Amino acid sequence: MGGNGNEEEEEEEEEDMERSVDFHQIKMSCSMASLCRWYNTVAKKSTSKSPRKKRKSLLQHEVAPPIVIIFKDLESFLPKVLQDFIIIASNYIQRLPLVLVFGIATSPIIIHRMLTHSVSSLLCIELFQSLPCIDHLAAVIDKLVLTTKFPFKLSGKVLQVLINIFLYHDFSAKNFVKGFQLSLLEHYYTQPLSFLCCALNETNARVHHLSHDDCELIRQLPSLMGYVDHQDSEKQVELLTNDQYLKTIVQTLLTDLHVYHKNYFAVLKCLHIFTSSLPKYPLGKQIRELYITCLESNVWEIKEYSSAFQLLGMMAKDELVRLLQKCVEVLQSSEHKSLAQATQTLEDFLAKFQKLDDAPVEDVEDGEENITESQRSLQKKTDLYQLQKTLMEMKVLKRRKKPSRFECLRMDVLQFMDQLARQYLVSPDTQPLHELVYFKDASTLRRHLNAAPRAALQMALSNPYYYLKNEALKSEGGTITYAAPDICIIYKLHLECGRLINLYDWLQAFATVVCAAEGKDPDEINNGQVEGVIHARFIRAVSELEFLGFIKSTKRKTDHVARLTWGGF
Question: What pTM, to 2 d.p., does this model score?
């Protein structure tokens, strides 16, 4: 689209830039010419690094790296501005290899609605989609939560709060990480023993430097008290009186807790592999759902667990072998000695499946003959009683039928997986010292992340002491003191009014309260003469209340305002 006029303008701009623009200065004029100059400098540096890269560039016809410009939210841009930018950029396409990435939240057709045909024809449009936000959440949970690299852990309720905010509010993996960071800060701020929530190689040094007060705090932990109750009398005395012996036990328990998490996550992933492909997903489609279930209770005690294993009892051989192979890969990646025997057992099952032959021919033929005779009797004309009798006989024959070798082996596999779940997926609440690494205050996290502005405003206006912590503002029985801010007095008075509030009566009530607070005689304002300062304070408080959305002006009566909210704290 460039002509001679455009080329002359470009040359003039270049000359101006050469005379006036210095990239090392703080002040720099931004233009396409300066961008061209910067790009040429960067491109020369990148192509003059090594002879090999030079030869490759010659073979690739000296293809320079593109400049990628991302429009994060295309719908928020003005169409005129976007069109002008594309037209300007098209004039520099020979010197600047530009790639524009449009982030579209609605539909790709929005491009043609925002751009005219003459502008859109300058673009070579290709459509692509990024991964769904659910996949990003799964990746974040796998790297932050379902890992032993970080000792800090979230309880089931806290994790559910973060996931609910993600699913029902913003779909932002970044905000999920921020919520995780906030939980981390709250845990280290509120838990005095949180310094023991550290990497395994640092625990011995930190436990060694525990003071007597720290040891007393450890003894007060509910999980350690339960651990002490299960010891013999001599060990109980040592744990409660000997700090050095307690430190030794704490080191052992922290190591056991680390091993517990390592085995826990490996077996959790194996169980998810088996149950994630079942119809209707009784234990959840995503691993986060299964993980929350395991955190809140013993998973084998819920009815969904039983229904899942009933469905697994009808799985075909090929599908079962494929799931076993995935489980072996997961257990091998854990690299822990306690799961080595489980890995070997699963490998033995795979070997048995590979050598598996069909069921004995004689048993199959006998069963088929009996069932065939019953099916033939069904084809004959018979009454209802005879039909019911024949169906009962077929049911008994099926029960008497000897299970095949595959069915027996499948049952052994499911029993082994059930044993693994019962052994390693025990609730974290049963582990000693779990309070050191688990954050459980879901209400605090919900209050910070899922705030309710109106409730906070009403609480601040009706009970200012809740936020200001001023002893003069303390009150009982829902009343408000004279020392409260003007807007709090105005808000309390407006709660006593109906749908329409008379401004004059409101002013008189406000002046009475303020005069009583200042020690003045309220009878002085009976003549209707209110001090100018009190009047100004009243106007400011009413304006603030209107700005917050509690009242609005009305056309029905000029000296009245309409109330917009009902109820309060």
Answer: 0.71
